[in-house]
Amino acid sequence: MKSYYDEEGAPKLEDMQDTGKSSVLLVGDSIRQGYCATVKELLAKTADVYYPEDNCRFAQYIISSISSIVNLVPDPDRVKAVYWNCGHWDTAHFREDPEPLNSPEQYGHAVGRVQKAFKREFKNAEIIFATTTPMNPSGEQSINPRYTSEIKKYNDIAERIVLELGGKVDDLFELMINKDSSWYADYCHYTAEGFRYIGQHVAEFLSKELSKPNQ
């Protein structure tokens, strides 16, 4: 499959196999890219785990990529869980712009749209939002700064909206907030060991969801 997104959606693999196992879909930014292989490995016996190869960036990018995301799985009706995140790009102050990419109001609105879009497309799935992880406590920044205090505010907005829409929340922010800088490879990304730790948590969370009887 070509690794691209456009308004028509990336092509579906012609030889995509349906193994009969439950399907899980992981969608999100570079934090998701860091843990998705671990989740796939740990859930291999119980579920087929699918995810985009590329970075899903910010909320509106996910909205515009829905067609391509749907094409990642053999059968959208067999997806039992969609586990997704966005936040690091949304809260980033690109080239130190005084305003983040998305205002709190824009972010909340877009998160709601993503949540509802996933529920429309994956009718039998639990739609789970993962909160945005904190920044390196060392204070290291990139050319596009973001701040843990602002991330927490945006997480609170997303959590409220997702729960109001009947979704679930997995609090990765809380999981990582007390980790020192040795867990980080840079300003916000984790070491290989750190990403595996997150992946183990996500796999455990999803395993509990998969064990529940079909609604």
How would you describe the overall organization of this protein?
With 215 residues, the protein is of the alpha/beta class. It has one domain: SGNH hydrolase (Rossmann fold), CATH 3.40.50.1110. 39% of the residues lie in helices and 11% in strands. The protein contains seven helices and five strands, in the order E-H-E-H-H-E-H-E-H-E-H-H. The chain has a five-stranded parallel β-sheet with strand order 2-1-3-4-5, sandwiched between helices. 41% of the residues are buried. The model has no long low-confidence stretch (mean pLDDT 94).
In short:
With 215 residues, this protein is of the alpha/beta class. Helix content is 39%, strand content 11%.
Helical stretch count? 7
Question: Which structural class is indicated by helix and strand composition?
Answer: alpha/beta
The termini sit apart by 33 Å
Cα shape: globular
Q: Using only CA atoms, what is the Rg?
A: 17 Å
Strand neighbour order, sheet with most strands: 2-1-3-4-5
Largest sheet: 5 strands, parallel
- State the CATH topology: Rossmann fold
Give unreliable regions as ranges: none
Average pLDDT reading? 94
Q: State the helicity in percent bands.
A: 25-40%
Number of domains: 1
Encode the helix/strand succession as letters.
EHEHHEHEHEHH
What is the CATH top level name? Alpha Beta
